[in-house]
Amino acid sequence: MQPTRSSPPNQTSNPKPGAPTEADAWKLEDHWQELVSALADQFTEGVSSLQNQIDQLLAKGRITKMEHRALNIPAERIKLAGLSAQQIHRLYGGRIRQTHEKVNMADLVEGVLQERKQELGILGIALRRKLKPVEVLIDPTLAHSFVNAVLDWGIPFGNRVDVRMDLNAWPQHARLQMRVANDGIPPSSSTASDSLSWMLIRQIAAASGGIDLERDVTAEGVSFTAMFSRTVVQAVDGISTVDLSDEHSSMFKSLSGTYVLTISPSLQIRADVRDALREIGITSDSVVDFNQARDAVKARMPNLIVVDSEIKDGEFERFRSELLREVFEFPFVEISPDDSSFDMSGFGEFSMAKVGRGNIREALGTAVMFELAKMM
Question: Do 105 and 222 lie in a common domain?
Answer without folding.
Answer: yes
